[in-house]
Amino acid sequence: MSSSITSSVNSPAPQPVSTASQGARQVAGRYRNAQRAPQRGLWDTLRIFAKFTFNRPAGTVPEDAIPVRALSRAELDQAPNGSLYRLGHSTLLFKLDDGWWITDPVFCERASPLQWLGPKRFHAPPLSLAELPPLSGILLSHDHYDHLDKASMLALAPRAEHIITPLGVGDRLVAWGIDAKKIRQLSWWQETQVGALTLACTPAQHFSGRGVNDGNRTLWASWAVLSAELRLFFSGDSGYFPGFADIGAQYGPFDLTLMETGAYNGDDWPHVHMLPEHSLQAHLDVRGRWLLPIHNGTFDLAMHGWREPLERICTLAEQHSVSVTTPMMGERLDMLAPQPAQAWWQGLR
Predict the structure, then answer these.
(1) Please, what is the angle between helix 308-319 and helix 276-285, to 10°?
(2) What pLDDT does residue 12 have?
(3) Given 61, 165, 173, 222, which residue has the most CB atoms within 10 angstroms?
């Protein structure tokens, strides 16, 4: 990406790309990004781990309580189509075609294999798992602990009609005892239909794994969710890469992008997480109209201040005339007619 952001959502629509040969690739049983990222050695990995563990700057965790708007089942039962709620991190609940969908449901206290160690939530979810309505579907981007919470999945799977995952992630769910008949696993550029909705598995530049020896055994992805009323893009986790422009050519323009904006570190992992400048460029590349920055405000996963992702993306959006909305956790967003939201993080320590 160039140092200046030059794309425009008002530019003529590009021609669709040929995707026939662009599905996910495996080498020796492990998935690869379309654009190979530099590989780090053991010492680099240990250095990053030591810095993250023992040399954290101040301000990565809020001192004040994060504002959360409590949700109730009664309110959700009355919510119209086009409603969307941030529940935390990359967990979003939205209603399309008279059905509720949830992305990457994580309701646990810590994004970690251990519930006594690891990144702890800044805030409680706006409602409990038990208060969620029956789900048309669960949409998963990849298998990292801050996106795939086993306890949440085991609780929600019986109440979900469909579970849509990248390749291999569904196999994990089956191993946990979740009904295989509910699960659809897709490769990049494959589509599936649920009622009137089309869900397209689109590329991302990231990695996967939940243990020491299972790296990249499952696929990571972004998603395009298409209805007669709305085109929605969910980035999952990704570094910035040329594939965003391909997604925009194939499925854009999008009415709303749910774009990863947080947990970045430009020195150590720019190829797998985006800086705010990258997030804005990715939004423009996919031909988004409104941008909702996600992957922030819930867990301490990087070396930046907890407010920084929201502050930086809002400043960039203003500089480049991009429409951005930042609802607080639990606040309803009308995806059919988004509006700017208050900067709820301002004034908090």
Answers:
(1) 50
(2) 31
(3) 222
Spatial strand order of the sheet with 91-96 comes to 183-186, 160-166, 135-139, 99-103, 91-96, 83-88, 332-334
How far, in Å, CA of 198 to CA of 191, rounded? 7
DSSP string, 208-252: --SSSS-TTSS---EEEEE-SS-EEEE--S----THHHHHHHHH-
Containing H/E element for 260?
A: strand 254-260
CA distance 136 to 316: 35
CA distances from 85 to 50, 82, 173, 289 (A): 36, 10, 25, 18
- Distances in Å between the alpha carbon of 64 and those of 71, 109, 133, 272, 308? 21, 18, 31, 30, 15
Cα 293-297-300 angle, rounded to 5 deg? 120
Spatial CA neighbour of 160 closest among 146, 173, 147: 173
Question: Which residue type occupies 322?
Answer: V
Q: Point out the residues of the chain with pLDDT beneath 70.
A: 1-22, 37-55, 267-268
Distances 101 to 120, 134, 194, 282, 290 between C-alpha atoms, Å: 25, 9, 11, 24, 20
Q: How confident is the model over 96-106, as pLDDT tens digits?
A: 999 999 999 99
User: Which of 265, 239, 294 lies closest to 60 in space, CA to CA?
Assistant: 265
**d(Cα 86, Cα 257) in Å, to the nearest integer?**
13
Residue 193 burial (10 A CB sphere; 0-12, 13-18, 19+): exposed
Beta strands in 105-159 (DSSP E): 135-139
In the chain, alpha helices (H): 42-54, 73-78, 150-156, 169-175, 243-251, 276-285, 308-319
Quick one: tokens of 227?
Answer: 């209805």
Does the predicted TM-score (pTM) go above 0.90? yes
CA distances from 25 to 118, 132, 189, 273 (A): 32, 36, 12, 21
Residue linked to tokens 């699960």: 183
